[in-house]
Amino acid sequence: MERWKLMSYDHPRGRKGLLDEISIILREECVISVIANPYMEAAQKFSTMLSHIRDSSLIVRALRSSFFDCNSLFILFNAYNATVQFAEYVVKKLKSLGIGIIKTLVVDSALSLSALLPLLSEELVLTPWSTLGTIDPYIFVSHVMPKEAMAVKESIDQAIASVPKDGGGKGQVIYALAVSGSLYEYVLSEKHIRYLERLLNDYVRDRVAEPKFNELMNRMLNNIDVHDQPLSAKEINDLVNYSKIVEDRQLLNMIERYYNSAINYLNKSGKALLIETSLVTYDITPPNTNPLGY
Q: pTM of this prediction?
């Protein structure tokens, strides 16, 4: 353990040394971190959103550069949002590489759509302070601020339901919605919500008891009143059969040290996202520039 004292944890080598140590404690040969910058999220910049095209490709590149073969992959994960397709896209990419088991540890937070990756993994690992969800999708229309799909759907459903059944009022409302662009937003919201329902049914339903799956769906997606209330580690552990909370103090200490070092690096360098193994580092510079790998 003395060698850790000689390293600066703000330097990539120090972080990579910590990843090595975490890998040894976990007895996992393939460990990768995907860490988003919380300071940019706090500034309401959407540069921390995980992209299914860009970031899944970087994850694959990091794996191919670092490991000869991975039957099991352990992901240290901390993120605040993602594109709707990110989680399934990453899982399918990893499975195509022959990775049979994906274990995702939520270091601190996996909020909004980024919570899908832990849920779709074979094993969901939590620190005692982890928070997860909710998976309410956003829709992006032109340069307008993103809107919550569930809120868009609910408001338009209410508008249509309020029209008397007799007469042509419903057609007039739908026409008005189409002209204003609200109907397009509604259709897009419906599309995202149905996709997420299908995803959870395909990946989660058979692994969770029916009452708990229904509660998970309600808490994570369907109940708009709790969309600003992510679930705690204990709540997730109670609902999800394939989850567990880390109790090993040495491992928790190493994870926290790595996470603090990664966040310090992201903040000081102005980066939005870090994808890293013990051999390679890729980071994303906001808002739309190319990633730097070294």
A: 0.86
